[in-house]
Amino acid sequence: xxxxxxxxxxxxxxxxxxxxxxxxxxxxxxxxxxxxxxxxxxxxxxxxxxxxxxxxxxxxxxxxxxxxxxxxxxxxxxxxxxxxxxxxxxxxxxxxxxxxxxxxxxxxxxxxxxxxxxxxxxxxxxxxxxxxxxxxxxxxxxxxxxxxxxxxxxxxxxxxxxxxxxxxxxxxxxxxxxxxxxxxxxxxxxxxxxxxxxxxxxxxxxxxxxxxxxxxxxxxxxxxxxxxxxxxxxxxxxxxxxxxxxxxxxxxxxxxxxxxxxxxxxxxxxxx
Length: 272
Hints:
Shape: globular
Number of helices: 8
Oligomer: single chain
Structural class: alpha+beta
Low-confidence stretches: 1-39
Radius of gyration: 18 Å
């Protein structure tokens, strides 16, 4: 089960990491818990959390996870993964602004985008999105049923809430069939997340109840998520539909102001 593989990160939060030590062993120290969280939330080049944010924005704006229909890999250099016309048509603005902004991270200059102390490798994001989309497509072509395949019910997702999570911020969505009724097996929606890393991406931290699904991406890439330090927004990178240029920000403890990026009209970095 996907839930067990990720040790229930999105629902159990930080304190539950202590359970990794085993019921009959001494409680883990704060340092040991921190080390386990670091291992479980591996995000060395920023790609994991960026892809998890893509899953959240697709759920919020497109209302579903149907990656081989709503997204397409690049067919020529620079090989950017894009939204399809079908995908864009599902968004209220016809553009899917937040989803597009996350896809635009593929265009960011290498070393420019930071998620806290992590520096996004945009080249790796391009190649990983391409390879994972193809993996998703190939899995779906195999057909079959069950947790090891890529079947999932036709569904719709509606944003429910955001809360602190084990890796970052847990976004929860009501999940129903297309008529608004209960899904037979909501856990199988995880089969549509191979394109954003699947079981190899700890920032997905997918979990499901009978009526909801949850994802745990990085702070700042989905507009609902924000935090502050004093009077400054504590983010190195922020995606926002409203301009935050010139507003105070704090990146890794250093205060600066947000500057609009050169490649996206809705993406801002803390300092030039």
